[in-house]
Design a protein that fits this description.
It contains four helices and two strands, in the order H-E-E-H-H-H. It has one domain. About 55% of the residues lie in helices and about 10% in strands. Strands 1-2 form a two-stranded antiparallel sheet. The chain has about 100 residues and is mainly α.
Length: about 100
């Protein structure tokens, strides 16, 4: 399953993921538990981070020229490069199961 498809599935179930620095944060609709999705989120965490960051970058660059925020673009691009470097790091050097539980 692609990260984009998983995000759609999670949204439909009432779970919204967002970036929290270089980690994931989630919010749920009232009464929705994250537990049934935790394993799937952890398994796809690097792809989810990349997808969410890519969406933010696209949002920042698809504005009128007068509204372009260069500082925000540079911040997001730096995060993208850091994620790119992390993706190049062997999986045993990272913890793919970490998930920020702070709502």
């Amino acid at each position: 399953m692609s990260a984009a498809a998983l995000l759609v599935e999670l949204e439909a179930a009432g779970v919204r993921l967002s970036l929290a620095g270089d980690d994931l944060r989630f919010q749920t609709r009232p009464g929705v538990r994250i537990a049934p999705f935790r394993e799937q989120i952890a398994a796809h965490k690097p792809a989810l981070l990349a997808e969410l960051l890519q969406r933010q970058i696209i949002k920042v660059v698809t504005v009128e020229p007068a509204d372009f925020d260069r500082a925000e673009y540079d911040r997001l691009w730096t995060l993208w490069k850091a994620q790119d470097a992390a993706r190049a790091t062997p999986m045993h050097d990272r913890n793919p199961h970490a998930l920020n539980d702070t709502p």
